[in-house]
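To illustrate the input format used throughout this study, we show a single complete record. The first block contains the structure-token representation of the backbone; no residue identities are included at this stage. The design step must infer an amino acid for every position from geometry alone.
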């Protein structure tokens, strides 16, 4: 009985955590599909939030690598007058980065749905 209660609480907390980031992320950025993301690349600042090793292996053409761990210290390198396009492996880090950008006054923030794993457009890779 106690084990069931503990498991239920853990599941509720786990689901609540993801719902929270989903809702907060929707306020901070617009999630766009691959086609929309591709159209925005020319006018935007494409930021790859993955680690440097992953970025060097393959990344979206035109993207700059600012790992999520360095993101807060690198905000000054981003312009507020141009769209910011974020991606990581999925969307977890992009959502958190978008929230930081929103708090700093960035108004045009876009996240690639599905992250880099869902990108089929032009890539730069060392292979």
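Output of the design step:
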């Amino acid at each position: 009985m106690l084990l069931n209660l503990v498991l239920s609480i853990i599941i509720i907390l786990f689901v609540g955590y993801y719902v929270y980031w989903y809702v907060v992320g929707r306020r901070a950025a617009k999630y766009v599909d691959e086609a929309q993301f591709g159209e925005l690349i020319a006018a935007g600042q494409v930021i790859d939030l993955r680690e440097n090793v992953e970025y060097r292996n393959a990344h979206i053409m035109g993207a700059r690598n600012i790992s999520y761990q360095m993101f807060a210290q690198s905000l000054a390198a981003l312009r507020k007058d141009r769209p910011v396009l974020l991606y990581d492996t999925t969307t977890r880090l992009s959502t958190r980065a978008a929230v930081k950008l929103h708090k700093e006054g960035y108004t045009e923030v876009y996240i690639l749905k599905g992250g880099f794993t869902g990108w089929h457009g032009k890539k730069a890779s060392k292979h």
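Structural context for interpreting the output: The first helix runs from residue 2 to 28. The domain at 2-125 is CATH 3.40.250.10 (Oxidized Rhodanese; domain 1).
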